[in-house]
Prior knowledge:
Elements: E1 4-10, H1 26-42, E2 47-52, E3 80-84, H2 95-101, E4 104-112, H3 114-127, E5 131-140, H4 149-161, E6 169-173, H5 175-182
Parallel strand pairs: 1-2, 1-4, 2-3, 4-5, 5-6
Amino acid sequence: MGNKKALLVIDMQKGSFTTQTPRFDTAGVVKRINDLAKLFRDLNYPVIFIQHNGSGSGHFEKNAPDWENLDELSIAPSDLCIDKCANDAFYNSELLSTLKGLDVSELFITGCATDFCVESTIQSALTKDFIITVVKDGHTTGDRPHLKAEQVIEHHNWIWQNMIPTKGQIRVETTEEIKGILL
Length: 183
């Protein structure tokens, strides 16, 4: 793998942000993703929007309203879009081949849902020896039966900070810390 960085934006789709599925700090997370996406574009690093494609399931059918990314996200014509069909964005998708083709070795990960698709993708990227930065304030989820969303996010940020990496590494940084690193 090369030494290029990429921003991954996972499942920030309309179907995941409904009145029945409220997410923690949606407006703040979207703003921080937009800020990072602009910075990545300015630095000529790829921004990759990953969307769950549930074609055939009746949910998140490609090009259906619930499949679309949130209107508040700033998506540029140069950004890439990749479909996924499981929690792990690498599973049966074009993500790994796209990253290899772009010479990417370092991932900055954002999105929804912290405890499902974000978590699975981070675990998978770690076993593929990527250098990973989880955007501490750039992922969200909803309340769960035994934990509030904010607790789920805090808990996963702690887990990721304490994971043993493979050949890559993993760290958890705020948007502002990342801006300081990249600029």
